Amino acid sequence: MTTGIPVGIVLFPPPTRSVLEAITRAERAGIGTAWVPSWPVGPDGLSIVTAAAARTSDIGLASGISITYPSHPLARVNQALVAAELAPGRFRLGIGASHRERIEEQYGLPFGKPLAHLREYVAVLRGMLWDGRVDMDGEYYRVHAALPPMVTPPRTPIVLGALRKNMLRLAGEISDGAMLTSSGPSYVRSIARPALAEGARLAQRPRPPLIVAASVLLTDDFAAVRQAAHAGSAHQADLATYGKMFQEAGFPLTARGLMSDELIHEIFVYGDQETIHRRLLELNEAGADEIAVNFVPVTDPVREEAAVLEILAELSS
């Protein structure tokens, strides 16, 4: 059966060198895109993607997601120009506002109104990376700049990290794709895809693709899946946006702030190779235009990674 689903792999740093090696393996396996996130504090995903651009030739590369508040959009443009030149036609710039708790508590920066902030941020990126100039006096940014004459705007696709309805609508209005994490088929079908489409209708433009990141474990042992889920989601426990999203999806966190077994089953893809293949296909059928897999090793990382890459290659063929 030929499905031809665009697929990618999500690779979290650190360590940086391991991420670069994993990108090389993914390219050899024929995977479409490598997404490298940025933690609020830690190795920068866009820098890693840029390093990967110099040592790969075919795989798509994307920051997924670079945090906006700590970096002026013009500075982000300067960084993106390097990645776009080293990986022409292969680079996507993924950005996101992160979370109030992280921006205000760790960076000491005002979070303000994230939707308005991102609208202006993308306007600067779009103007510079697509048109070569921008003249804007906004609430958050006053930018009057143009690329040097010898630099051609690379028209880099801009992907917006989005979890809930309002951000998904904004992505539908202004982005070249929305990246959704920690969400299962029901949320994709009933909330994410319609919100993205609504934003596109408001802007009278085609709906951009919905990219859904899914954690995948090659195991039938649900206890192991539960353990990995609780460990992996620990950084989400104090973030209000995730709790609200899970509530809207119909799977509220427990009284202790943990994921219920029902939520874990909904958003974590696990089982044997056939089961994982089927569940990723179901995610696509629910409305995910592209799937990006975060591979979570259980007992044998080398064997399990090879099997997951094989599944992804089959889905994309």
TrEMBL record:
List the coiled-coil residues: none
Could you tell me what this protein is called? Alkanesulfonate monooxygenase SsuD/methylene tetrahydromethanopterin reductase-like flavin-dependent oxidoreductase (Luciferase family)
- Keywords in alphabetical order, please: Monooxygenase, Oxidoreductase
Q: Which Gene3D superfamilies match?
A: Luciferase-like domain (3.20.20.30)
InterPro entries reported for this sequence: F420-G6PD/mer, Luciferase-like_dom, Luciferase-like_sf
Molecular function GO terms recorded: monooxygenase activity; oxidoreductase activity, acting on paired donors, with incorporation or reduction of molecular oxygen
The Luciferase-like domain is annotated at 15-290
Q: Tell me where on the tree of life, at the top rank, the source sits.
A: Bacteria
